[in-house]
Design brief:
2 copies of one chain form a homodimer.
Chain A: E1 2-10, E2 19-27, E3 30-35, E4 46-49, E5 53-57, E6 59-64, H1 80-92, H2 97-113, E7 116-123, H3 126-136, E8 139-146, H4 154-168, E9 176-178, E10 181-182, H5 190-203, E11 207-211, H6 215-225, H7 229-235, E12 243-247, H8 253-261, E13 265-268, H9 270-275, H10 283-288, E14 292-295, H11 308-323, H12 331-338, H13 340-345, E15 363-367, H14 379-385, E16 392-397, E17 400-404, E18 407-408, H15 413-427
Parallel strand pairs in A: 1-4, 1-5, 6-7, 7-8, 8-9, 8-10, 11-12, 12-13, 13-14
Antiparallel strand pairs in A: 1-2, 2-3, 5-15, 15-16, 16-17, 17-18
């Protein structure tokens, strides 16, 4: 299969700005090259018109809990404790594989519609999530969330996580990879972490966890252990394997140095951190400190969407206020965090995240027809500060078209919506 | 003209939540009532189907500079000083009436598309803005921005502002009202403020200004005058007339008490405050302190859109982090600030901002068909935390339909876009 996307404006790599018009060739799963308009040679099975459109690398949602679309609008405006203890946790105990499967599909529809091509998901009933991802056509780093507050939970939880990772790592023709996910330093003790690291080394998979999300959690950790959660994980040897750490709201300079020194990737989740009143992560300080800063939406219970275009804009403007500097997190840096740094965070860094020869063909075409793209002085700034998910028109993963002309190609949206509405009624 | 909007979910007043299904009758410029489904009596000239849709009071953008759509993406990621002195001010000196007219229309298209029915605008060439508003059909509080840093500028600036207000107050069949706008305490001395207040009393119009936007501005004011800008305006007697103050990022408890005591309305502009690194206004503290907190986008140069749906969500989640309490600014409060508090801020408080008998028929219909509205546990939370401007399908102001089925009725969008692209090319 050879596809030509012609005459589109193209962001090949965020740091290189926008090419006003180019022809992009896709061969099989990869980009075969970026050419001047009319300069691509040979026959094409498909030609996609790109005039008046902007082609960018696919968005990478570096932290989510997909099936929590079930809980969108379910528990609003509560304290974190009431939210978890009175609403989310009791409801999660009633989850079934069927519910997780359909609400994962719902989340996948939403992600495709807003231009996400890859994501990192940590949840339960992960085989169902895997099935959904296989059908939808996205790329994903999946992991079972290990929560072992008591010693008797350690073995069963680790076994579940291991079984899932052994079965699904490399599935869907390589689109699915697995991670191990001790949920957080405050829900998993040192034994869990040590075993997870040993297993991660054996399976050659990364660790995806929650880290330093709330002030209270970090204060309590320091009180109990005499050090920050970041230092604690470092001393446990966790950073000897690739780690993707969500949130990192309450990290100090020393923590940032540690994260950078060990190439830890951070999934910055600004909407969720604001909505749950967790705080504002020092995103720009992390980027400046050499941390690979990706962006995630977190689950739809605390966002309440899975829209990376919205999340990228928020990350860009919030970083400026947090750093007290309007030059912080300029548009190309925000786009990089939403795309190529996310690819690296998921472990696909070397051949994903750019529109260039040899890279995996994950990309998104924005329709620039909306009035908010006028006058168009700076298309990259327009993409970061102005665009919305509804502007996404075409989505491609590994050369396969998942949406075109805003029509889904791999999923039956009507069926997904109908099944989810039905399941939600029963769930209430 | 009698219009029936049937079977829609309806937010009549934000604090009352969502009526799952109702019939809303519009007679002439006003709502004639909200009835049970099928209970509205009589003949109708138009029936609008509302099933699967959500009808809400129109959004009120309480602070913007409409024609700055010209500068969207024009000056990104700069310090405030470079942004103003090197980019915006030199460019504004080249503005013409023609440019302001067309880029105001562009902003009006964008506002209609995202559900805004009324707004407060302060800029230059205001006759052109007035002409554009007259054609578009929105409701607006318009004012010429008085900048008088030297004594010789005082008289000419006040005269311009007065002439505009005298000519345009009450225009467009009452849809246009005028304000007087000394730009800010740091650009206008006491004489300007005193004269503006006297004139506001004479013309019975409010004052719309910028207040306490940056820390530096407030620090310098305190150094020079020994009091905060809020106290200073109070002592000058400015709050004897209705005042709409944009930003109020750097206000302390005492300032908040003063604003509340004098019924000053605040236009909270979270995107602009973040993007320019001005800070995060204590929005929830102001609401709790009794201030009428409205929401504004500010101009498209610092937002970069005029999308109130996006701004409402940001105001809601940002307030939680700022107050360190996830219960702060719950969904109904955010919606109230984006609608009825905005109506009050613009001086239309008594008969605008609710869907109820006798109120002016300004309303917006959201299409709930998008996948992000599933499963729909809490439609009001979905509206605040999930919806996007592109979900707006129908917009009505004073009983007149400005958009239906996402098609504009009063403006020629293609012509507006073409003219703006052309003018922007010349401007560069």
């Amino acid at each position: 299969m050879r596809i030509l996307i012609q005459r589109a404006a193209v962001v090949a790599r965020p740091e290189e700005g926008v090419i006003p018009a180019a022809d992009v060739v896709v061969e099989g799963k990869h980009f075969a090259g970026v050419f001047g308009p009319g300069e691509a040679q040979g026959e094409f099975d498909r030609v996609i018109e790109g005039e008046g459109k902007l082609l960018v690398p696919g968005f990478v949602n570096a932290h989510t809990h997909l099936a929590m679309t079930l809980f969108r609008g379910f528990a609003e405006d509560l304290t974190l404790r009431d939210w978890l203890e009175k609403k989310i946790w009791p409801a999660e105990r009633k989850l079934t594989g069927e519910v997780v499967y359909w609400f994962s599909l719902l989340g996948l529809v939403e992600m495709i519609r807003t231009g996400t091509t890859a994501f990192a998901d940590m949840y339960f009933f992960m085989e169902e999530v895997g099935r959904a991802v296989e059908e939808a056509g996205l790329r994903a780093l999946l992991s079972y969330g290990i929560i072992a507050p008591t010693p008797d939970r350690i073995d069963p939880e680790l076994k579940k996580a291991e079984a899932f990772a052994r079965e699904w790592n490399g599935a869907a023709d390589g689109r699915i990879r697995c991670a191990l996910s001790p949920h957080a330093p405050y829900t998993c003790g040192p034994e869990v972490w040590r075993e997870a690291v040993a297993l991660a080394k054996e399976l050659r998979v990364p660790i995806h966890t929650h880290l330093a999300e709330t002030k209270r959690e970090v204060d309590e950790h320091r009180e109990r252990h005499g050090k920050s959660p970041v230092q604690w994980l470092e001393e446990l040897g966790v950073f000897a394997v690739p780690v993707l750490a969500a949130h990192c709201v309450w990290v100090d300079e020393k923590d940032i140095d540690i994260l950078a020194a060990h190439n830890v990737s951070v999934a910055h989740c600004p909407s969720s951190n604001l909505k749950l009143a967790s705080g504002i992560a020092p995103a720009w300080a992390m980027v400046r400190g050499g941390v690979n800063l990706a962006i995630g939406t977190d689950g739809a219970a605390s966002n309440n969407t899975l829209d990376m275009v919205r999340e990228m804009r928020l990350a860009a403007i919030l970083a400026k206020a947090r750093a007290e500097d309007p030059r912080a997190m300029p548009a190309p840096e925000a786009l990089s965090s939403a795309t190529q740094r996310g690819a690296q965070a998921l472990g696909w860094g070397k051949d994903l995240g750019a529109i260039a020869e040899g890279y995996v063909a994950d990309c998104v075409l924005f329709d620039l027809g909306a009035v908010h793209f006028v006058p168009g002085h700076d298309p990259l700034a327009d993409l970061v500060y102005t665009a919305c998910g509804a502007d996404v028109e075409m989505v491609m993963v590994g050369g396969e078209i998942l949406m075109e002309g805003r029509e889904l190609r791999t999923l039956d949206e009507e069926e997904v919506v109908a099944r989810c509405r039905d399941l939600a009624r029963k769930f209430r």
